[in-house]
Every structure is written in structure tokens, then in C-alpha cells.
Amino acid sequence: MKKLLTLLMLAGAFTFTTVQVYAQDSTATDTTVVDDSFADDSFANDAAEDTSTDSVAAIEDAEEEAPANEGFHSVVKKQFLAGGPEFMGIVLICLILGLAISIERIITLNLSTTNTKKLLEDVENALSSGGVDAAKEVTRNTRGPVASIFTQGMMRMDEGIEMVEKSIIAYGSVEMGRLEKGMVWISLFISLAPMLGFMGTVIGMIEAFDAIAEAGDVNPALVANGIKVALLTTVGGLIVAVILQLFYNYLVAKIDSIVNSMEDASISLVDILVKNKG
């Protein structure tokens, strides 16, 4: 009986020991699995951190490359400030005033353009049907320098054809002066803008050489930066001059066209008056 109890106790102890060892092995296995999972999570986190780092680096690279893709207005503003607001501001004022006068002249000259062929036909019909008074009424109701010249010429109809011609020539000079109004200012800005740019360049070069003299050594970076800033004023002045020159040439061509129409129409008017008087 004692042997049986001893065997049962040994069997129970062995079973308990086996279960405990198995439990320990299971715990160790679970811990290993957890550790492996934690390792996998850590690897995933490291990968995510690496991805985030790469994303941040990509964003920084994009930000560094952004200045290369700046818009036109940003580039112009940057160069304008780099050239110095003193001279660049004056050059900008020349551009604004020159453009304002040019636009005003373009509108005025386009409104001054007259269909001279139709006007001559209306004047001739009015002379045939109602006389000089009817013809003057037609010219007064027509806009443009050609109609104004016709009116002034027919107002001297009672004094003879010679006085009509003299009146047309004299008043034609007045109308030409009105057409050319403001052109001298555009020409001034065309000449003034590059001269201001050259002045800014000369002053910038003087400042660069003063900086070299103070430093006692020729610093390429200092010289290059000073020359760049100085030349920006010249570029600005030349750009303004080119833009205004285009408008100026267009306006000159428009004025010449109107003046030629005035001269041709005046000759035709005299012929019509002579024919109707006879």
C-alpha cells in the first residue's frame, strides 16, 4: 500500500513537473512569438519612419526646386527689388505714364478716323440738294478732324475758293497738332527710361568699386553681385523703351494715315465746291 502511494505521489510529481515545464515552454513560445511580432512591428515602424524621412526629403527637394518654377510675376518682382527701388521705381513710373498716354492716344485716334469717301458723298449730295448750309450741317454732325476741316473751309465759301483753300490748310495744321498731342511725352519716356537705367548701372558700378577699395581685395562674389544689380537697371530701362517704342511707332503710323486722308479729302472737297459753284 505504501509502495502504491509512493508510486502515485511520484507519478503526480512527474505529471506536475511535466505540465509546469510544458507551461513554461508554451510561455516562452508565446513570448518569442510576441517578440517576433514586436520585431515585425518595429521593422514596420522603422520602414514607416524611413518612408516618412524620404517623404520629408522629397518635400524639401521640391521646395528647393520651387524657385526654379516661379511664376513670371514673382521673377519680375524679385529682379525689380534686386535692381534697387530707387532707379527701378522711376523707370516703372516712366512705363506707367507712357502706357497711359499711349492708350489715350490710341483711343482718340481711332475715334478720329473718318470714312472720308462716305463723307464726301454726303457733302456732295447736301450741296446739290440744300446748298452750303446743308453741307455744313452734315460736317458738323460728323466726328473727326476731316469733318472739322470741311466745316471751316465751307464757312469761307462766300469769300471765294482761294480763301477756302487757305482756311483748309491753316485749320489742317491745327488738327495735325491735336493729333500729335502727347507724342512728345512718349518720346521723352522712350529716351528717359534707358538713360535712367544707364545711370543706375554707373552708380552701381561705382558702389561696387568702392566696396572693393574698402575691402582691399578683389572679391569675385562681391564684384559679380554688384555688377548684376547694376545691370538690372539697364535691362529695365531698355525693356520700357522697347515697349513704348512699339506704341510710338503705331501711333505715328496712325497719325500719318489720318493726315493723308485729310489731305486727299481736302483736295476732293475743293473740287466738289468748284463744281457746285459753277
Task: Give the tags.
278 residues, mainly alpha, 2 domains, 90% helix, 0% strand, rod-shaped
3D structure, described in words:
With 278 residues, the protein is mainly alpha-helical. It folds into 2 domains: 2-66; 83-277, no CATH class. It has 8 helices and no strands. The chain has helices at 2-65, 72-82, 85-112, 116-140, 145-155, 161-179, 183-215, 220-277. Helix 4 packs across helix 8 (220-277). It is rod-shaped and about 90 Å long. Mean pLDDT is 74; it is low at 1-45, 51-60 and 62-68.
Structural class category: mainly alpha
Report low-confidence residues grouped into runs of 5 or more: 1-45, 51-60, 62-68
Approximate helicity band: over 70%
The end-to-end distance, rounded to whole angstroms, is: 170 Å
General form = rod-shaped
Task: Tally the beta strands.
Answer: 0
Radius of gyration, in angstroms, nearest whole number: 46 Å
Topology as a string of helices (H) and strands (E):
HHHHHHHH
Output the number of helix runs: 8
How many domains make up the 3D coordinates? 2
Instruction: Summarize model confidence as the mean pLDDT.
Output: 74
Q: How much β-strand is present in the residues? A: under 5%
Largest sheet, in brief, is: none
